[in-house]
Amino acid sequence: MKDLTKEEWKKQISGDDNAMILDVRTEEEVQEGYIPESKNIDIYKGPEFVSEIEKLDKSKNYYVYCRSGKRSAQACSIMEQMGFENTNNLQGGFMEWDGDVQQ
């Protein structure tokens, strides 16, 4: 897992044709806004989270975020244990994000 600042995150994603953005917040948090093209899988759903993660393509580069960066770091760690090689955590999470947002 790499911890990326929002600047590093934006730069890496813009040049990454193999990127997938993963939002691990709750549905309620997502309703407040989300990073465009992100897939939401709530880490608080426990076993359901793991079963949804298992369905993802391990060859992709994952850019993971939550509200503050703690849950996404945890999600990256879980994903690495499951065999995902390229996980990137957004430092400061959605609270620090100043890029595009969808409602």
TrEMBL record:
Alphabetical list of InterPro entries matching this protein: GlpE_sulfurtransferase, Rhodanese-like_dom, Rhodanese-like_dom_sf
Top-rank taxon, per record: Bacteria
Transmembrane segment boundaries: none
Signal peptide: none
Ranges of residues in domain Rhodanese: 15-103
Protein name: Rhodanese
